[in-house]
Amino acid sequence: MKGRIITLGNFDGVHLGHKALFDKTLEISARYSLPSLAITYHPNPAVVLGKKINFSYLQSLEDRKEFILQTGIEQVEILPFTKELSEMEAEDFLEDILINTYQSKHIIIGYNHCFGKNRRGNFQLLEELSGKYNYKVYEVDPVFSGDEKISSSVIRKYLAEGNLEKANACLGRNFSILGEVEHGRKMGRELGSPTANLSIPTNQVIPSHGVYATITNGKFSVTNIGHKPTFDDVTVSIETHILDWNGDLYDTNIRIEFIKKLRNITKFLNQGELRDQIQKDIEEARKTLAKLPISQ
Question: Are 28 and 106 in contact (CB under 8 A)?
Fold first, then answer.
């Protein structure tokens, strides 16, 4: 093989900052007629090194891989991150993994990406060793949304605040969760608005508790995240009501895209008050979603 054009990083969320890396990788790939490859680490290094407890991902590993491939990158490799890998000298990581294993001819990294023991593998070190191993290296600048430097951490912050507008602006798409529909208590049906209960994926970031205007499997919907105080139910769930649709989704996978938070979770005096509020939520969701440039 003549070699590959390689970019590497965590790529959790596949946001616009990551897309800049992929765009540069594809540009170099087209220029030199060499295949493109994205190397992503999993689990997150901060988890393996004990720096973050109860860490949650913006998307599943399967979703991450699929979203990277959708950018046009030809191949995605999952590099298992271990303590042993973290102790590997940067020069050894470069030679053993990037050069010998993946035949790197061009390496594209983000402005803050480092690898190897003590994070010594940075742009400067890659430049210094480029002549020895006959490759070229490129550093991609940060991408901003307004005045905010886009990062996975910033997106997590916005989701925790329920600020889907800013989170989605950083992602360059709608934040979404993919999961399997499971049987619930069917309280939505009793209230005149049947819902699909999403099995919450393990270690998945979810937006703050509340009611959201959403799109489920391409259809307008309204989604509740959290507990049900009106019923004294403290179980956290994700339930979505698909507007103007009837059908059985049990044991199938659905994707919920989050557009806008409509309100916080509220305890109502009785089911009648809750039923009335649900209808208001549905109408508010219709108004919000009708402004989107998609067809139903």
Answer: yes
Of 226, 176, 228, nearest to 205 by C-alpha is 176
Q: Give the pLDDT band of residue 293 (cuts 50, 70, 90).
A: confident
| Cα angle: 252, vertex 290, 218; to 5 degrees | 20
pTM of the complete model beyond 0.90: yes
Domains and CATH numbers, the chain: 4-148 (3.40.50.620), 175-290 (2.40.30.30)
Q: Is the peptide bond before 142 cis (omega within 30 degrees of 0)?
A: no
Residue 67, phi then psi, degrees to nearest 5: -65, -35
| N-to-C CA span, the chain | 47
How far apart (Å, rounded) are the C-alpha atoms in residues 52 and 74?
32
Contacts of 192 (CB under 8 A, 6+ apart): 275, 278
Computed on alpha carbons and rounded to an integer, the radius of gyration of the chain in Å comes to: 22
Q: Give residue-wise pLDDT tens across range 7-31.
A: 999 999 999 999 999 999 999 999 9
